[in-house]
Amino acid sequence: MSSHVYNVSLQLCGELSPFQSEAMGAGLEQCVVGHPASVTIVTRDKSGGACKSGNAILSAEVFTPDGSIVDGEIVDHKNGTYEFVYIVPKEGDFSLALRLYDQHIKGSPFKLTITRPAGIGSSEGAKRRGKSPGQKKKGSKRASSALGTPRRKTQNPIEDDLIFRIGTKGRNKGEFTNLQGVAASSTGRILIADSNNQCVQVIFSNEGEFKSRFGVRGRSPGQLQRPTGVAVHPSGDIIIADYDNKWVSIFSCEGKFKAKLGSGRLMGPKGVSVDENGHVIVVDNKACTVFIFQLTGKLITKFGSRGNGDKQFAGPHFAAVNKNNEIIVTDFHNHSVKVFTPEGELVLKFGSNGEGNGQFNAPTGVAVDINGNIIVADWGNRFVDMFLMAAAPSYPTSTHQQTLCTGLKVWL
């Protein structure tokens, strides 16, 4: 954290105290499988006075009974209060750790009891919730390959069949603890930003074979603190959004650090992409703004602000670029996808909050396939949706059930 941000916090609300700061809300009391839960964090100074400014370093982690971490989203309201939204995939006894400047706030860690939705008889059944407006999305068949890693592609895959899967939980090579962004190169490499392992696994061939990994934890140039988005530049350079370091790092295809961009401008870069001109598209989750940079770091333009208007965002996550060089952005808390020109003019938007076809519950990853179709990872509904762009993009032509999807890229 920069001394400038810290000094601003001191001037506006005194020295922040994790031990005086507190959490409240339904997310500490009633948590239901597959439904968003919200917790409000109020920051206070040593005397217990409420802080009136934002930009505090706050972290939130939900731990499952087996010790894995459920990802969530922190929204800075810029008035000393923050909202943490999370969704859990199964019932059980969980814990929530809320830290301010790496120290637990009052009452943290909190014990959470996650229950099934009313009328659902098992945790498996909770994956298919009750009726909602619009046609219900169909779930995928659980392929036999889902239990093995990896396996070769089938000769004649059926619709929704899992082709193969790669990776297991852990901190070794080829293992993950919090997968975020995913990209693929023209040479067939699959790159994965592993946020909690503070590395990028430039790792898998098209058949799932491990290749390599790079990244050292830290807050200095060339180090990674919380990598989230990853993209491949036409030059072969690897572009990584570092949420906690508040910049974008550029590495060579061999994983050697070359430069950083956006330092001093970005507040919380989440997703990155590259347009047809080689410009770097950065989705700033905290600033609710899309930045466009040259690879040299020069800012070309930016657009977007916080809100629910057509040209506004509420916690945007990732971006993709189509053949028209239009920028497609997932708007997490507005439950929509928005398409913009490179100049930031809105082309179209689609989606609303819900569980039916064409609806979202916190969309995150986005990609464009070879036919121009838009593929969206729906984090809250645990689906991947495809929108046919040959017609009006108002409904998914097919859906594939996933588990708490995050970053997404397609390479064909």
Structure overview:
The radius of gyration is 21 Å and the shape is globular. The strands form eight sheets. Strands 2, 4, 5, 8, 9 and 10 form a six-stranded mixed beta sheet that branches. Strands 1-3-7-6 form a four-stranded antiparallel beta sheet. The model is unreliable at 1-13, 120-154 and 391-405 (pLDDT under 50). The two termini are 40 Å apart. It has one helix at 3-13; strands at 16-24, 31-32, 37-45, 58-63, 69-70, 72-76, 81-86, 92-100, 103-104, 110-115, 168-169, 175-176, 179-184, 190-194, 199-204, 227-232, 238-242, 247-251, 257-261, 269-274, 280-284, 289-293, 299-303, 316-321, 327-331, 336-340, 346-350, 363-368, 374-378, 383-387, 396-401. By secondary structure, it is mainly beta. It is built from one helix and 31 strands. The chain folds into two domains: 3-127, Immunoglobulins (Immunoglobulin-like), CATH 2.60.40; 144-401, TolB, C-terminal domain (Neuraminidase, 6 Propeller).
